[in-house]
Design a protein that fits this description.
Elements (H helix, E strand, L loop, with lengths): L9 H9 L8 H11 L4 E5 L6 E4 H17 L7 E5 L4 H12 L3 E4 L6 H11 L3 E5 L1 E2 L2 E2 H11 L5 E5 L6 E2 L19 E6 L9 E5 H14 L7 E3 L7 H5 L2 H8 L2 E4 L5 H11 L3 E4 L1 H10 L12 E5 L5 H11 L2 E8 L2 E5 L6 H6 L3 E2 L5 E5 L12 E6 L11 H7 L6 E9 L5 E6 L3 E4 L2 E4 H9 L4 E11 L3 E10 L7 H10 L10 E4 L13 H14 L3
Parallel strand pairs: 1-13, 3-4, 3-5, 5-8, 8-9, 12-13, 12-14, 14-15, 15-16, 26-27
Antiparallel strand pairs: 1-2, 6-7, 10-11, 16-17, 17-18, 19-20, 20-21, 21-22, 23-24, 25-26
Bound molecules: 5'-O-[(R)-(benzoyloxy)(hydroxy)phosphoryl]adenosine.
Length: 544
Amino acid sequence: MRPLIQPYPDARAAAYRTAGYWRGETFPQLLRQWASQRPAAPAIIDASQQNTRVLTYGELHHRAAHFGAGLIAQGLKPGARVVVQLPNCAEFFVAVFGLFAAGMHPVFALPAHRQTEIAHFVDRAEAEGLIIADSHDGFDYRPMARDVIAQCPRLQQVIVHGAAEEFSAFSAVSADPATLPRDPSPASVAFLLISGGSTGLPKLIPRTHDDYIYSLRESARICGLDRTSRYLAVLPVAHNFTLSSPGSLGVFLAGGCVVLPPSSDAKACLSLVERYRVSITALVPPLAQLWLNGLPDIRFDLSSLRVMQIGGAKLQPEIARQIEPAFGCRLQQVFGMAEGLVNYTRLDDPQQVRINTQGRPISEADDIRVVDEAGNPVALGQPGQLQVRGPYTICAYHNDPSANARSFTEDGFYCTGDIVSRDEQGNLTVRGRSGDHINRAGEKFSAEEVEDHILALPGVMDVAIVAIPDTTLGERSCAFVQPRDGVTLRPAHIRRFLRERQIAGFKIPDEIEIVTTLQKTAVGKLSRKDLRQQLREARLSEPA
Ligand code: OOB
């Protein structure tokens, strides 16, 4: 197996330790501490199912330790990587802390991923285990798991929360914690996150205990969390925003409680705000808009809500302006990435900053550059490419030399692909993207990844996928498909083909246009990037 590493240069690692950013803590150690300091305090209120369940810190620790030992009893060894694909439920946290306790590494997949993505994660991470729910949102994950096993012989263990059929039942994975290994090194990789991706398939992002715990501690402080905080986890819990900004893990660190709703529906969620006195929640812009639209019909007491975070995609100032009066709480914009850097508007920032910017970095040690195409810094207020290096931003993806060559500069900066401008206070405003990825309601994927699927359809000569601004989704995807001579292709046929390829639903193009040729101007062969740009401009100049 390829080792999991995150190669922070020695000098920087030493500086982060000296500055007290990296304190040598690990996740198993933190959970033990929490459980001994506040065993009876609620950690999780799981209202995702009909019967609401409360898990205290003591119970979370107990269940995680037994689950972790159970994994070892099933034959998985410390060091193993395990893909975790669960909806928002208490078992997600039992699984993740259980894996940590067993010295194993979660690979965080999203419920929307399908066989193609899961098999890719299993391959890339060399994962030997997969943890799923039986079904969720009308999708049965067990047949998918069978297909992944057939495709990836390395996968030995599938654990199912719910009706397990031939697989191991989540509830039966339990053993005496005496078999658990010693704590991992704080500098070691704790888990792998999934990148949104600019090119090709999603990449794997190794994050260390040291770096992630630092970002949690600072996030919890910036968001004003304490033991009374109650966080409603609306977006998928495995997403970096919901996990760590400050997310569920930041809430645990502060001693608060995570509330898990049955869905992202405004009524369901806001009734939980009233019932459990929720103080903070986090949404993507399209969901915030849905909640705003639904608000006139909803009569719940929202007086406990202090902070509504919005991030994952650009929040338009017109929508931003409505949030505070509508929900009676502070708006906090969050601009982050699974690779590391997270920016927040601060709760006491002037209104103009809260509405119009995406905030500033967590840390004074976040080294930010805004540069032009040639890599030279642009003037203050001018748009440029955002590059970053710092105490919780990765220096490399896992097992992906070509992505590493593209995404990191020689002096160790991560090229985010985001076009931003920066003001005198250091606040960033996101202006766009330099890469060809689509951010559809906060869910990201690369144009190239889906183009490659469409190219596999016999009869397709060429295809280009572009992002089109969309008032609800932020961006929607439009595929321009050129058939081979004499072939008739229909959008419905292409959509069906894509569904059969078992990819996440959000990647299926919102629009498909069949064109006779992709290259309208005879200026020689355009690069893919320029071609996409040209198609996008042509599409935007069409009358509505
Ligand atoms: C978060 O993480 P990812 O990895 O799913 O996506 C990162 C990308 C950024 O590079 C940027 O292009 C976009 O998503 N993005 C935003 C944004 N927040 C993220 N674009 C405009 N405005 C924003 N507020 O999405 C993520 C991770 C941690 C915290 C928050 C979001």
